Amino acid sequence: MAAHTAINSCRPAAIMKAYELSSNISLIPPTIAKGKFAFARIQGEICLVQVSSLTPTQSALTTVDVKIFRHEFITIFRFSATTTLHPSDIQFIENIDDQLVYYEEEKGTVFLARNVMERLRQLTLPVFPQPPRRVVRPSSWR
User: Fold this and answer.
1) Residue 114: which domain range?
2) What is the pTM for the complete model shown?
3) Which domain of life is it from (predicted)?
């Protein structure tokens, strides 16, 4: 359930609007024919993205063309938006092996393998610090 919440909060419209406000680059949606799927952090949220294979090797100066997918149901994601981001606005967390992804491009639907969804769940779980444990000694040790 944590993965569902985290992915649904990855709102492309908000991301694009924030990016337009902070950038002088006009946002003309790029065309992404083929690309690699990955989990990425955009505006603090973990998202499923497809990075264009035409995007050059990442550097601090080149923009990144991505398709953003929203979590719909269990292992199903639907296409939400295509955008161009500055490298400082996106952090790639983990690439996803092509064999673990089934993409129906004409429908804009992505199916992920269950072990990939488990990995996403682990990435989106909140981290709670563990309080220091107090050692309790039996009274016979005193």
Assistant:
1) 2-126
2) 0.67
3) Eukaryota
